[in-house]
Amino acid sequence: MVTNANNQPMDMNEHRRLRILELRKWACGDVTARMAEKIRRTDSYVSRMLYEEGKEGKKRVGIKMINLLEDAFNLCSGWLDLPLGTPIMATSTDGFSPPHVAEPTNGVRTPPHQIIWPFNLLAYGRLTALQRTLGPKRYHEAIKDLDRQLDIVLTKWESEGEELKKRARASA
């Protein structure tokens, strides 16, 4: 069992169905045919995976399909089991790639097509565990605090980068 945004119990199969709906929306423009093409299945098959529980003809999402989705969309392992709303995080073959991040809109981040998590010490799993521990309100406060701290450090490194550019122009 997993919990929804209100910390209410949710069946794992339903959770995965909702995550696949998010994936279809974010990575396929909410078009079932695009998702079907990406995973080499028929539109009908993908539609039936997205049927609500109890609807006749529903397809369950098993381990093989989870692996297929993770591979086809270059998702991090276990992405379907992360909390609803967790952005897509791609795996990186080179060990590090710059993140592709959507711009915030009214303080709410629109999930991007891909995020490659560049942090080692601040593992994404730690954040999701913190969310479960703190609950939605306190987690939001924690994220705001982390955001402020990261902004301070990023500003420091941006200044250093500007200084390096100035030195390079002066020596050219």
Explained architecture:
The protein folds into two domains: 1-118, no CATH class; 121-172, no CATH class. Helix content is 52%, strand content 5%. It is built from five helices and four strands, in the order E-E-H-H-H-H-E-E-H. It has a two-stranded antiparallel ribbon. A two-stranded antiparallel ribbon has the order 3-4.
**Alpha-carbon distance between the termini?**
61 Å
Beta-strand percentage range? under 5%
What is the radius of gyration? 19 Å
Q: Level of helix content?
A: 40-55%
Q: Describe the strand arrangement of the main beta sheet, using strand numbers.
A: 1-2
What is the fold's blueprint, element by element?
Layout: E1 2-3, E2 9-10, H1 12-28, H2 32-39, H3 43-49, H4 63-72, E3 104-105, E4 108-109, H5 124-171
Antiparallel strand pairs: 1-2, 3-4
Helix pairs in contact: 2-3
Quick take:
With 172 residues, the protein is mainly alpha-helical.
What labels describe this entry?
172 residues, mainly alpha, two-stranded antiparallel sheet, two-stranded antiparallel ribbon, 5 helices, 4 strands, 52% helix
